[in-house]
Design brief:
This protein is mainly beta. Helix content is 0%, strand content 55%. The strands form two sheets. Strands 2, 4, 5, 6, 9, 10 and 11 form a seven-stranded mixed sheet that branches. A four-stranded antiparallel sheet has the order 1-3-8-7, with no helix packed on it. It is globular.
Length: 117
């Protein structure tokens, strides 16, 4: 069974840092493009960052220069390093996978990130 499990969320003050992890199982991790999404209270889900099978990265303008996405294919883990956090980064963060071998996308349960001033 495919599972994506996020961890690393928590509560920090503005300017602080967190590193999120997404551990995948039940899929060919190297065959999948991966991404981070977030949903803030009262708002719709938005894309934060993505990383392709080859390692190419993309970022939303709101996080570019502050967040870094990476992946460890040997360990089947996706990371999101978040620096210089702002209150507007407060959201539930989800990881997602879309793989060459399947038309189905997979989602984790999410991890809460709360940033206060």
């Amino acid at each position: 069974q495919v599972r994506l499990v996020e961890s690393g969320g928590g509560s920090v003050q503005t300017g602080g840092s967190l590193k999120l992890s997404c551990t995948a199982s039940g899929l060919d991790f190297s065959d999948c493009g991966m991404g981070w999404y977030r949903q803030a209270p009262g708002k719709e889900r938005e894309s934060v960052s993505g990383i392709s099978r080859s390692g190419s990265t993309s970022y939303a303008d709101s996080v570019k220069g502050r967040f870094t996405i990476s992946r460890d294919n040997a360990k089947n883990i996706l990371y999101l390093q978040m620096n210089s956090l702002k209150t507007e980064d407060t959201a539930v963060y989800y990881c997602a996978a879309i793989c060459l071998s399947s038309a189905t996308s997979y989602w984790g349960q999410g991890t809460q990130v709360s940033v206060s001033s």
